[in-house]
Amino acid sequence: MSWTCALHSCVFCEVFYAPVAHKMTLQEAAEECGRWNAALASPGQLHSAWRQGLDRCDYGWLSDGSGRHPVAVPRMQCGGGLLGVRTMYRYRNQTGFPDPSKKLGAYCFRDGPGDCSASV
Description:
The chain starts with a strand and ends in a 9-residue tail after the last strand. It has 120 residues and is of the alpha+beta class. Strands 1, 2, 3, 4, 5, 6 and 7 form a 7-stranded mixed beta sheet that branches. The longest helix is centred in the N-terminal third of the chain and has 10 residues, at 26-35. It contains 2 helices and 7 strands; from the N terminus they run ββαβαββββ. 16% of the residues lie in helices and 28% in strands.
């Protein structure tokens, strides 16, 4: 989550992993984010949240149809000990996004009553 502040106002912007106990298809993930008054996060929004410390070892859907997860704390069982936003690929040559029917989590983005683009 982040705050973007001007002289007299602050805007709250948040990327969060949808708090559900089950995995979802891309369409179900978009609908789940909507239940939280949010939308699927973009890769840029997830990357910004990772730079601010978001760490989750669970792949989740993003708005571009990709499956990714942020690793801010290095550990072998999550990203092989490497930091960054990890991407799930469909093919072994590291191309293609996952099939939309694959079950993943969801990274959602919710903004405040102003412009959150400055924090992304």
